Amino acid sequence: MDSLAGKVAIITGAASGIGRATALSLAARGTSILVADINADAAKTVAGEIETAGGDAIAQPCDITCDNAFEALKDKALDRFGRVDIVMNNAGGLTRGLPEHVPLDEWRRVLDVNLLSVVRSNLAFLPLLIAQGSGHIVNTASFAGLMTYAFDRLAYSASKAAVVQISEGLALYLRPKGIGVTVLCPGPVKTNIMASLRTFGPPTDTRGPGPAFDLMEPAEVGEQVADAILANSFMLPTHAQIRDHLIDRAGDWDGFIDRQIADPHIVARAADA
Ligand SMILES: NC(=O)c1ccc[n+]([C@@H]2O[C@H](COP(=O)([O-])OP(=O)(O)OC[C@H]3O[C@@H](n4cnc5c(N)ncnc54)[C@H](O)[C@@H]3O)[C@@H](O)[C@H]2O)c1
């Protein structure tokens, strides 16, 4: 995409964290924003922040687990702005528990929020973007979808790995049609995501990716997303260490697993978590 000025973006989970930061970054570069979130009040606040800063935004409550949610977002954007250029499938949720403790219903919930929401979005928006022969899709996955550093968040990692794969397939399909695809794979970012964390089974030590990964400010991620759309780049890992870990794993996958077991990067003991 040559410029973000005059474009229209729909961002789910835009009331907080990475979604909000991206909304602010795109708006500052002239994009009109549909702030979509299950938290209607917080979505209104973000739309207000954008307007106060001189941008153009509306808030729209939505639950991405509803089958018609994305059709409603599309209708709202076309009604208010007359076009859709950028779709960012960003809202997501986290769950924690040992593999033998996370129940099937929780797996279904996490896959519904993190994975099937992307499928719903594709069904609603691909016909429109393909017909206009332009646009950009940003799917928020996670570095947890590229490499596994913890065994107590498998539903989350699996859902995000699936988002990476779907995104790569979409890039193959859509790039020749003039539509860009970016998969955002954040490392640790300072957001409210832990507030929605659900835990199953007895408390366990919480494994993290290790001290090499800084806790990044969401504003930095928002700027990275805006730049990736302009550059039409597919893979967007927020932290340089993600690439280093992937190269390390590709060279010696067994050694990568053994090194993680030996150095478990426990960031919080069960009693403190
Ligand atoms: N923060 C991190 O360290 C990190 C790392 C990797 C990936 N991510 C991913 O980034 C994305 C954004 O998360 P964040 O960290 O900004 O968290 P956040 O909690 O700050 O923001 C998530 C937003 O999504 C909204 N939301 C949740 N469920 C929804 C639903 N069903 N329908 C509509 N909106 C819903 C929430 O209300 C919230 O405003 C998620 O997909 C998350 O998995 C975050």
Query: Could you tell me how far the N terminus lies from the C terminus, measured between alpha carbons in angstroms?
Result: 43 Å
Shape: globular
**Assembly annotation:** single chain
**Rg for CA atoms:** 18 Å
Q: Determine the fraction of residues in helical runs and give it as a percent range.
A: 40-55%
Instruction: Decide which structural class fits the backbone.
Output: alpha/beta
Q: β content, as a range?
A: 15-25%
**Strand element count:** 11
Mean pLDDT: 95
Tally of individual domains: 1
Give the biggest beta sheet.
Answer: 7 strands, parallel
Judging by the overall fold, what is the CATH architecture?
A: 3-Layer(aba) Sandwich
CATH superfamily: NAD(P)-binding Rossmann-like Domain
Could you give the order of strands across the largest sheet?
3-2-1-4-6-7-10
Secondary-structure element order, N to C: EHEHEHEEHEHEEEHEHHE
Indicate the CATH class: Alpha Beta
Bound molecules: nicotinamide-adenine-dinucleotide
CATH topology: Rossmann fold
Keywords: Oxidoreductase
Domain Ketoreductase: 7-192
InterPro entries: KR_dom (IPR057326), NAD(P)-bd_dom_sf (IPR036291), SDR_fam (IPR002347)
Pfam families: adh_short
Descriptive key words:
oxidoreductase; KR_dom; 273 residues; binds nicotinamide-adenine-dinucleotide; two-stranded parallel sheet; 16% strand; SDR_fam; seven-stranded parallel β-sheet; 45% helix; alpha/beta; NAD(P)-bd_dom_sf; 8 helices; Short-chain type dehydrogenase/reductase
